[in-house]
Amino acid sequence: MTKEEQIAALRSEPWRETLRKSMKNKERTDIPRVHMNELDATYRSHNKEEVNTGLTAEQAQQEAKRCLDCPNPTCMEGCPVSINIPTFIKNIERGEFLEAARTLKETSALPAVCGRVCPQEKQCESRCIYTLKLKKEAVGIGNLERFAADFERESGNISVPEVAASNGIKIAVVGSGPAGLSFAGDMVKRGYDVTVFEALHEIGGVLKYGIPEFRLPNHIVDVEIEALRLMGVKFVLNCIIGKTISYEDMHTDGYKGIFAASGAGLPNFMDIPGENLIGVMSSNEYLTRVNLMDAANPETDTPVLQGKNVAVIGGGNTAMDSVRTARRLGAERAIIVYRRSEEEMPARLEEVKHAKEEGIEFLTLHNPIEYIGNERGRVVQMKLQKMELGEADASGRRRPIAIEGAIETLDIDEVIVSVGVSPNPLIPRAFQGLEVTRWGTIIVNEESMQSALPDVFAGGDIVRGGATVILAMGDGRKAAAAMNDYLQSK
Amino acid sequence: MNKIVSKEHFSENVIKLEVEAPLIARARKAGHFVMVKVGKTGERIPLTIAAADTVKGTITLVIQTVGGSSKKLCALNEGDYITDLVGPLGEATHIENFGTVVCAGGGVGVAPLLPIVEALHKAGNRVIVVLAARSKDLVILENQMKANADEVIVMTDDGTYGTKGLVTNGVESVINREKVDMCVTIGPAIMMKFVSLLTKKYEIPTVASLNTIMVDGTGMCGACRITVGGKTKFVCVDGPEFDAHQVDFDEMILRLGAYKEIEKKD
């Protein structure tokens, strides 16, 4: 059966036909989108409780009614892991929440994670018929995904996807972030003997060290990892492929395929004077201290600077995560400094909205050019160049241009630099024969994710340079399918 | 979890631990380091590997109790487990036959210097080791050094053992009597700074192994960044060894104190 036939077959099941006919489309489209419940902004900006509190069952069923169960569900084309979106939503509408969760898990290893951190407005929801044709707010696919995944977890009836009989073929995964976990889930379902190697002392990669608790609680990630473990995925912590175990060792140990998903490990700095002063750090360092090491907790050993006037440089999701974390750690002023205008910011609209509600200041069209320190080498001020927007650049965004002579000074005691990351050099250095771009990303065949070394596939930020959780997961799925074909044809 | 198979007190504040880590023991080379974390809520700290035994599958770490985290590690006993241990990290020492090499070590820096001394000696170098400590009780690994070096010079600040004076006095005495082709120095940042200033005066190429603050140790955080020849480098992936004459030691010393004021109680 082709994918289209499968979608059609599920759609024509009797319950689904009846459900579709139970309401007129006009009645469905007249329902306004149900909005996510949130904690009060003043309350939440002083703790790490999750900001979004989820939908109630009634809200979820109401939102699910809005979905028209289209014969040609374009939303699915917008999902990198091809979740059967109408099937899971219609299951929510009819109250079969566990069945909805089961549908999600058929193609996604991390539904509770994706329901929280995917930029759905740029993925599935951007391809929803409400967005494309009706010019109305899309069906809240992400919110519904989160609802179903949370319902299943809280019910205690966690389903474990079916796993094919073991074929005994050993597969190694380098890195336990979203790309690696997604790949591992798909391969273990196909019967492979999958081991995930993680360099850090916790499983989850960026989901643990990067994304803060108030947006993605660690215990939610742990439940999804546990599900993979139940399916038979093995995890090895504190092990660096290319350092602890070499590529050659992996062959000796009998691994027939390797999926490199080691992430974008190296933070970018701007190379401006004063950047190595104490108090200036990468968002990776700041977030790792707070999220992975729980440094703001007095009971742990890792320290973290807790500035009163904190500037975060950048306009992406990581910058928003950093500035909102600084606010929660007691910053009186927590400021986003961004060289373009708000319109060009790559961060999700929801993150910008939440940040503003929490009292974050936005200093757009400003670019740091120098940090000034005191006699003890600590940052106390920054010099900012004011900018204006010129013509569109290669990214389609208007290019920021310095306004000559317009320089300001701002008093700050902590700076978090969040201007992107570069790929981690460990894997490319350790795997002789890999081909890499001049930025250090691994070159792969875009269809199969196969690298220049036939048994090494790669995906996520080590290939993309810096992208999203869901694109990384899509890479993992693609690589799993292609590696399976490669190994079966041998 | 890695088991501690033996523990030895070098002095009151310096401990030697031999730890089960067969994969690291097999993969490590002179110059490599590991990241260590004690307890679930522990801090990740970098430690340079002092020795490895591939037959027993162990590595040796030498730790000085300075902050809360090193105290926690030193409080562990034979049979206890280190919660998290990962490595080997960093780039290995570049070893070749340079001719005559002076290896200057101070404090616990003497421990990671030992495998480098061994490797240089094996590569055919004439190796002269200068060991420096505040006083006699703090001199470590003298016999092991003697077994691998052509000469060992001990310097103590208070003159209780060896010659009274600083490590730089010892290094300069060698330079004054014979041609030195290369210098390797490991120890407190301030000591490496002065060794570097001295050898720069004599134009002797010098390598320093740096021990900075790190969180992950794999290139991810950038906490370890230093300036080398005007450029920012990451000690964890670009080092830990650098051309000492190019290192901005003053900046490094300031950065080492980044968390002094907020270091948590243990």
Can you walk through the features of this model?
The complex is a heterodimer of chains A (490) and B (266). Chain A is α/β, with parallel strands linked by helices and 490 residues long. Chain A is 38% helix and 18% strand. Chain A folds into 3 domains: 3-155, Fumarate Reductase Iron-sulfur Protein, Chain B, domain 2 (Orthogonal Bundle), CATH 1.10.1060; 170-265 and 423-489, FAD/NAD(P)-binding domain (3-Layer(bba) Sandwich); 267-417, FAD/NAD(P)-binding domain (3-Layer(bba) Sandwich). Chain A is globular. Chain B is an alpha/beta fold and 266 residues long. Helices cover 26% and strands 33% of the residues of chain B. Chain B has helices at 22-27, 68-74, 110-122, 142-148, 167-177, 189-201, 235-238, 249-256, and strands at 2-11, 14-20, 33-37, 44-48, 51-53, 58-64, 81-82, 84-89, 100-106, 126-133, 151-156, 163-164, 182-186, 206-209, 225-228, 231-234, 241-243. Chain B has a 7-stranded mixed β-sheet with strand order 12-11-10-9-13-14-17, with helices on both faces. In chain B, strands 5-6-2-1-7 form a 5-stranded antiparallel β-sheet. In chain B, helix 5 runs parallel beside helix 6. The radius of gyration of chain B is 18 Å and the shape is globular. Chains A and B meet through strand 7 and helix 16 of A and helix 1, helix 2, strand 8, strand 15 and helix 8 of B.
Name a few traits of the molecule.
heterodimer, A: 490 residues, alpha/beta, Fumarate Reductase Iron-sulfur Protein, Chain B, domain 2, FAD/NAD(P)-binding domain, 3 domains, 5-stranded parallel beta sheet, 21 helices, 18% strand, B: 266 residues, Elongation Factor Tu (Ef-tu), domain 3, Rossmann fold, 2 domains, 7-stranded mixed beta sheet, 5-stranded antiparallel beta sheet, 8 helices, 17 strands
Q: Write the CATH fold name of the largest domain in chain A.
A: FAD/NAD(P)-binding domain
N- to C-terminal separation of chain A?
25 Å
Question: Which runs of chain B of at least 5 residues are low in confidence (pLDDT < 50)?
Answer: none
Structural class of chain B comes to alpha/beta
- Any low-confidence stretches of chain A, pLDDT <50, length ≥5? none
